[in-house]
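Problem: given the chain below (470 residues), write out its structure.
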Amino acid sequence: MSRLPALLGALGLVIAGPAWAEPSEDDDTGTEQEAEEEAEEEAQAEAEPGEETEAEPAPDAEPEPDAPAGPVIVLTEEDSAAEKKGIVAFGQNDTTLFAGLWEKGFLEGKEGKKVVIGGYAETEYHNNFKGESKFDMHRLVLFVYATLNKHISFAAEIEWEHGGSPRKANGKLDVGEVLLEFATADFKFTDWIGLRAGIVLVPFGAFNVRHDAPTRDLGVRPMVITNIIPSTWFEAGVGAFGTVPLPKDMEIDYEVYMINGLDTKLYDGLGTRAARGSLGEDNNNGKAIVGRLAFRPLNTLDIGVSGYRGAYDPASSRYVNMIGADVTARLGPVELLGEFAHARIDPGFDEGWAEATRNPVPQAMIGAYGQFNLNFFPKKWREKLPGDMQEEMTFTLSVRYGEVDTQMGVITAGDRSRLTVGLNVRPIEAFVFKNELLFESNGDDGTLERFFTPGWSPSLKYVGSLAMMF
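Solution.
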């Protein structure tokens, strides 16, 4: 679904002449200069030995205009159109709400750079109001993006989670998380067809491919995104992507890949999260197919459908089949987001590895969320802000409700519902303070209470976070 944006896709390079280059002169000027040089030589020859004839200073030359010091990007009509559509901006107040892999905010203003380094950071504070609280350096991410020529590019993300390694957990130092979350080489033939290979962000749903913390208005991800679609879901593979233009500025984005698939670690509660691959191996010889097709009738509306099919057992005889749908829309200051996923799993067991439980895997999982965002800021306050914040300062009120069931047909602790209410402050697009309250209940006692049912008694948790892109 992604396209090479105007920032790194404008590839017409004009190499400017050096700043010291002399302006061209006509023949008459050249003749006069030769005559002056001959006269100087004659005067020098007639001078007594040991004496030097002081040459007259040359008349002042006109100062030449400054020349560019290096390559200059020449924007094509296509690039200019992309810029007008806003695909290179980022943040929830811009069209990056609909952005893809090559439409990240740190790329803005980097025209002409062959290699661009950026990233983001997110730190959090958690308090469950039961005497437990902590600070967590949740993520530090570095991006490396490179454009080799008009058709070939590379993008990678390196992520340190929870402080990297070593990490202290349950009072003991253990191996932490340093992840190569994506690393892809692209060969783009045209806008509508390109090939991609490497570690890819699995294109199942919109959230997984647009998960960067600074562009999200709530810090804690929806349950369907962590347990049914195990975001951040990335895997080694190969496939195709592109954008197909339609009449009236409409378009269709697509991504489809063959990847190492999910394995047998499918559990009630965790869902598919533990079944993600290791990037360097597959537990069977069958490869999974995954893809997303998105229809964009307006640049403020994105409607997507996704599918996944892959064998999960060592014999490649049992399959996980998943379908999903997502919508992202903006109407003025209001944003609406939603996502649905459903998994059907062939009967089987957790098997094929040293610590396998041999327990039956769940045969069906389902989950969804819906989110409402309202961006606002009192006009009379804006005039009192520092000049560099007057244009971008924004408050966002967010309300999200979601449910997930990781073992359909029976009520367990894996049946969860959550209401999240958040208010964040974004002084500039690249920097955001988030505050949210999470009201959550589950079916651990055999009944599932929801926020709209009588007697609802959820647990309460506060999460505050700071996220910034650089």
